[in-house]
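dumping this here so i dont lose it
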């Protein structure tokens, strides 16, 4: 496990020792053969940075199919919820997933990325001027000039990652849909190595 902190607060962690998901659970049919959405973002925001406008990417999440969910519950040493497949789809090439905090109950987000969405996609963390580092569920700003950049991560595919959902973060630049297995966790004490 590798953990990155800012002012004593965990931004993200990676778990090299957690097992990789077997390929037979990762083909398109095993991931997406049902139409039931777990969550869909509205995606109507536009961010403004240096007098340039950025359309938001579209976020969708489907529940994981039972085989994948059982494999995760049996093999990953952490009890997380809302296990699903997320797709973050840039509506125009090289746009962002605009800065946001995750929505309740995603206090922390677990990711296992299957497609990075581009060769140079960074997950960037920010603190908004005159605001605390740790924010409320669902906080956003469209004034991207009002953010102090604090750290960036370039994650790999097929690696388990934990993100702090209540520190403002974005994805940039997205060239194509970014796809990941994902889940939520309320309390990182559940992960013994972080306790
Ligand atoms: Fe997020």
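and the seq i came up w/
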């Amino acid at each position: 496990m590798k953990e990155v902190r800012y002012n004593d607060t965990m931004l993200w962690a990676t778990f090299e020792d957690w097992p990789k998901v077997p390929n037979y659970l990762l083909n398109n049919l095993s991931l997406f053969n049902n139409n039931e959405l777990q969550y869909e973002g509205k995606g109507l925001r536009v961010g403004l940075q240096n007098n340039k406008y950025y359309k938001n990417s579209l976020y969708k999440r489907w529940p994981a199919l039972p085989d994948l969910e059982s494999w995760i519950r049996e093999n990953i040493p952490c009890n997380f919820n809302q296990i699903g497949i997320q797709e973050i789809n840039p509506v125009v090439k090289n746009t962002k997933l605009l800065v946001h905090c995750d929505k309740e109950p995603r206090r922390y987000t677990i990711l296992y990325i299957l497609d990075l969405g581009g060769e140079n996609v960074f997950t960037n963390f920010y603190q908004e001027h005159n605001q605390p580092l740790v924010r409320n569920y669902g906080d956003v700003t469209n004034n991207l000039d009002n953010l102090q950049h604090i750290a960036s991560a370039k994650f790999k595919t097929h690696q388990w990652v934990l993100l702090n959902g209540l520190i403002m973060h974005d994805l940039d630049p997205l060239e194509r849909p970014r796809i990941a297995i994902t889940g939520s966790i309320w309390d990182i004490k559940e992960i013994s190595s972080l306790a």
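The chain has a mean pLDDT of 93.
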